[in-house]
């Protein structure tokens, strides 16, 4: 078995950990819900969700980074957040998904800020973007809360037209060590 050595990260309220088998049912449930998953390439049937889940794990092996599962410190899975860079994309992106149980509590912001800090301090990225499908107002609000701005639109090979939200450079964020 491949040891991916996914770093365990923590915030005040959250644990960000690598994916494991027990996460699949939550991923499948998320992707089968068209109203919830449309902004992340869904809906997907169980086979499609399994392939997405397996590619999420494989992404770690190929790039050394990927999506972390977001758990509360009480052990409840509430979403996933990370850095995604599949074939054909212009650059790595910071992405997030909240399960219904995790919405409206500030978890996505807390987790995404921690992952962005990791990308800058550990992976030594200079900047990040977030690709957001038009109409995904909640993701736009989160990106803007993080200081990102609408840089323009692209034609994404996976999702069609998406808005590019550019995050502040590492050097422009207080407390980030560059």
UniProtKB/TrEMBL annotation:
Residues 14-170 form the N-acetyltransferase domain. Keywords: Transferase. InterPro entries: Acyl_CoA_acyltransferase, GNAT_dom, N-acetyltransferase. GO terms for molecular function: acyltransferase activity, transferring groups other than amino-acyl groups. Pfam families: Acetyltransf_3. The keyword Transferase applies. PANTHER family: GNAT FAMILY, PUTATIVE (AFU_ORTHOLOGUE AFUA_3G00765)-RELATED-RELATED, N-ACETYLTRANSFERASE DOMAIN-CONTAINING PROTEIN. This is N-acetyltransferase.
């Amino acid at each position: 078995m491949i040891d991916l050595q996914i770093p365990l990260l923590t915030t005040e309220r959250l644990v960000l950990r690598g994916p494991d088998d027990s996460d699949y049912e939550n991923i499948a449930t998320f992707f089968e819900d068209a109203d919830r998953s449309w902004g992340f390439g869904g809906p997907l049937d169980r086979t499609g969700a399994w392939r997405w889940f397996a590619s999420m794990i494989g992404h770690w092996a190929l790039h050394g980074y990927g999506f972390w599962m977001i758990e509360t410190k009480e052990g409840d899975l509430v979403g996933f957040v990370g850095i995604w860079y599949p074939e054909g994309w212009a650059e790595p992106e910071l992405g997030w998904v909240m399960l219904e149980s995790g919405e409206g509590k500030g978890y996505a912001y807390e987790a995404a800020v921690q992952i962005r800090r990791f990308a800058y301090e550990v992976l030594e990225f200079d900047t990040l973007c977030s690709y957001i499908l038009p109409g995904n107002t909640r993701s736009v609000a989160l990106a803007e809360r993080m200081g990102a701005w609408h840089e323009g639109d692209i034609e994404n090979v996976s999702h069609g037209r998406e808005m590019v939200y550019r995050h502040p450079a590492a050097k422009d964020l207080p407390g980030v060590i560059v």
